[in-house]
Design goal:
- This protein is of the alpha/beta class.
- It folds into 2 domains: about 1-60 and about 80-125, Leucine Dehydrogenase, chain A, domain 1 (Rossmann fold), CATH 3.40.50; about 145-285 and about 300-305 and about 310-340, NAD(P)-binding Rossmann-like Domain (Rossmann fold, 3-Layer(aba) Sandwich), CATH 3.40.50.720.
- About 45% of the residues lie in helices and about 15% in strands.
- The protein is built from 12 helices and 13 strands.
- The strands form 2 sheets. Strands 1, 2, 3, 4, 5, 6 and 7 form a 7-stranded mixed sheet that branches. A 6-stranded parallel sheet has the order 10-9-8-11-12-13, sandwiched between helices.
- α4 (about 145-165) crosses α10 (about 285-295) and α4 (about 145-165) packs parallel to α11 (about 300-325).
- The chain is globular.
- The chain starts with a strand and ends with a helix.
- The structure holds nicotinamide-adenine-dinucleotide.
- The site of nicotinamide-adenine-dinucleotide has 24 residues, from α4 and α5.
- The site of nicotinamide-adenine-dinucleotide (NAD) has 24 residues, from α4 and α5.
Length: about 350
């Protein structure tokens, strides 16, 4: 196994590349910040077109984790790992575990796109700096229901702020993506009496949502044109771009998807259009709160609930900052976190 130190972007603490000929592992770990605790962030398995592309992605994502962890006030810094490839093997995951272990606890790994809890179980054979496990005293398991609850609490707060409605009864919500988070979220919204418009790549799950939530099925691309109060992106990133934002008829956007804005200026466009945008990394922090409990060895439901209830309060502080400075919510969130980062 060969580990190479690479030049990290300015403001980043560490960037390492690992190649292991025996297992075929090619992986990068980026540590953006350990100022507030060990860097934590998932490991992504992706077939990057080049090492350059993977380097850009891992650094962008690790900085994003610093912002998310700080906005949720967790005793963690930000980091991320990527594995470049098309086929995962247990040997590869074991080699990745050794790579993580070589950083001596400055970075904790967990699941991200393309990585399952069973992959993390293999990683845990080689390092203790791993979370998102399914077994063990502090195992946090699937974070999705917790993420969904955090998004739900923030969505309620956003509707109250923007629409003056303290209850979701009769509120029309367009949900994009009925996967792990989107499904749990839809359950909660439906229980509160919201009317759901739903779309997903998976037709079966749409049928299930129509049956169970009395939802209206929408074709994939038509979700942006729905006459609704709230758009809830729970599928993929960059869903808010010049084209989609020009079509939206909603007044509130709150969803679980990471990196919803295709570019920073889309946040300005949303402000100009009078659409309230709840910054993704603020509202979807439930998952990392769940993971952080495993890292901190906390097994206390009250701790979890307090942290989740703090998410809409953080949203309130960002709203206040956005109003005072007359800036978009995306910019206010970054400024809010950057002020915390200097402390
Ligand atoms: N799982 C978590 O705890 C967590 C935490 C923070 C952020 N997120 C983010 O939330 C989003 C959803 O996560 P998840 O765990 O539910 O993922 P998932 O893979 O379980 O679900 C995503 C769903 O979106 C659907 N989908 C994909 N492309 C689509 C499209 N173009 N239009 C409509 N539907 C589409 C998929 O078919 C799938 O059902 C992701 O962006 C993820 O990064 C998840």
């Amino acid at each position: 196994m060969k580990i190479t130190q690479l030049p990290a972007l300015s403001g980043y603490e560490n960037l390492q590349y690992c190649e292991d000929a025996k297992s075929g592992l090619r992986a990068l770990i980026s540590v953006h910040s350990t100022k507030h605790g060990p860097a934590a962030g998932g490991c992504r398995f992706w077939n990057y077109a080049s090492l350059e592309e993977a380097i850009n992605d891992v650094q962008r994502l690790s900085r994003g984790m610093t912002y998310k962890n700080r906005s949720a006030n967790l005793p963690l810094g930000g980091g991320k790992a990527v594995i470049i490839g098309t086929k995962k093997t247990p040997e590869m995951m074991r080699a990745f575990g050794k790579f993580v272990d070589s950083l001596d606890g400055t970075y904790y790994t967990a699941e991200d796109v393309g990585i399952s809890p069973s992959d993390m179980e293999i990683v845990s054979e080689e390092t203790c700096y791993v979370a998102g496990l399914e077994s063990g005293e502090f195992a946090s398991g699937d974070p999705s229901p917790v993420t969904a609850r955090g998004v739900y609490l923030c969505l309620k707060r956003a509707v109250e702020y923007k629409l003056g409605r303290s209850k979701l009864k009769g509120i029309r919500i367009a949900v994009q993506g009925l996967g792990h988070v989107g499904w749990h979220l839809s359950q909660m919204l439906y229980a509160d009496g919201a009317h759901l418009f739903v779309t997903d790549l998976n037709k079966e799950i749409i049928t299930k949502a129509v049956d169970q939530f009395d939802a209206t099925a929408i074709d994939l691309d038509d979700i942006y044109d729905v006459e609704a109060d709230v758009f809830s992106p729970c599928a993929m990133g960059a869903c808010l771009n010049i084209d989609t934002v020009s079509r939206l008829k909603v007044t509130v956007i709150v969803g679980a998807a990471n990196n919803q804005l295709s570019e920073f200026r889309i946040g300005d466009l949303l402000k100009t259009k009078g659409i309230f945008y709840a910054p993704d990394y603020v509202v979807n922090a439930g998952g990392i709160i769940n993971v952080s409990m495993e890292i901190q060895k906390i097994n206390n439901p009250q701790y979890l609930e307090e942290r989740l209830l703090a998410l809409p309060k953080t949203l309130d502080m960002i709203i206040a900052l956005a109003n005072t400075k007359n800036i978009g919510m995306h910019a206010a969130a970054d400024q809010f976190v950057e002020a915390q980062l200097t402390k």
